[in-house]
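Sequence decides. Our protein:
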Amino acid sequence: MMDRQKKILIIDDEYMITDVVKSYLEHSDFKAYIEHNGKKGLETFYDVKPDLVVLDLMLPDLSGEEICKEIRRNARTPIIMLTAKAEEEDILMGLDIGADDYMTKPFSGKQLVGRVKAVLRRTESDPVPLFNIMTFHNGDLEINLENNEVRKSGEVIRLTPSEYKILLSLVKYPNKTYSRDELIFIALGEEFDGYDRIIDTHIKKLRQKIEDDLKNPTYIQTVHGFGYKFGGGKNEA
């Protein structure tokens, strides 16, 4: 039993899905709210102030992307995106504009509840960044989320798309350790079927661009036997 019943807002136009999801959430001691279009969903968001939003990408009025951006302009509330497409571009787009996790349809209610609990645990200890610019170590490293620009010691550094995706994922939850498989999916997509150590090559190149001491990295730290995590001290702007 939770200390306070968590409020979950579901914004999806498929009535069968929302009814099932609501039932599973309420069975797990959440308070569930349902809206079937984007405008009403935003109204309920500001009225209810939910602890988490389950948001469909495809809605009859506003798109899920528009709603996600609107929420991110004003709140750190975690968002789980729902999509009928498993395309890497759609998933990464959602993560880039502020979603915390995603699920592809069809999915089970039990699986969604598990994701909701995991995201709430993660975001309660590491809040979603609200600001468009994140700086670390008093400005040594700066990430501009608006234009996807990264600066090191005031100079723009050129990252490949894969390097940027890895860095952004690590930065978002600095206490989370990512396995190689997780980073491979983030950088290369679920269809990648090559050698998993390729992610070490991406990490090596990324470190060469943002670290001062490659033997004692400040930002991208190795968690031996598992993967990598972000270790930079944050100052948000």
